[in-house]
Amino acid sequence: xxxxxxxxxxxxxxxxxxxxxxxxxxxxxxxxxxxxxxxxxxxxxxxxxxxxxxxxxxxxxxxxxxxxxxxxxxxxxxxxxxxxxxxxxxxxxxxxxxxxxxxxxxxxxxxxxxxxxxxxxxxxxxxxxxxxxxxxxxxxxxxxxxxxxxxxxxxxxxxxxxxxxxxxxxxxxxxxxxxxxxxxxxxxxxxxxxxxxxxxxxxxxxxxxxxxxx
Length: 214
Ligand code: DX5
Ligand code: ZN
Hints:
alpha/beta; binds zinc ion; binds D-xylitol-5-phosphate; eight-stranded parallel β-sheet; 20% strand; globular; single chain
């Protein structure tokens, strides 16, 4: 599995240092959690903070938009330096049109499913995305417990992606640690978002190395 550390709980006064920590852990990319205070009951950061972090690292920016209306800000997230822009299937915008705008801008596109959203809801969009994110907690906050009952959804998506012969990654996000990553990998996920477990790890590099072997 690849590892995409979420810097949601990091110290934003020292963003450059936190990105160096992510680089030194051996992670493959960095996961940026954008929350609008409407789609989820929490507020984080937007394009200006992503633009400020961009010159600090060459890491791939995996941008998870927990927003009710992501479409109007796609150009701003592109300009800020996002490499992948991920929208929620449950948002209020036109999903296909928004994914097309992301890809037309030359960026990777992805969709996310909240826990209550079934795998089948993503099927019509699988040819339009590079990645599908299956939330393994209710989005909004770091540090919650992994929902193992999301694993059949991961497996259903993996089977449909394979049936269609597509190369779409499946990411899991929420409560991932060395143990739950094993469960997610067995279900068919290939990218693990890791927030609190990595930032609290005694040996971050050992955690990332371990997940890489799954
Ligand atoms: C939750 C976010 C996650 C979260 C991950 O809404 O999308 O990326 O911060 O944090 P942990 O790994 O602590 O659950
Ligand atoms: Zn996230």
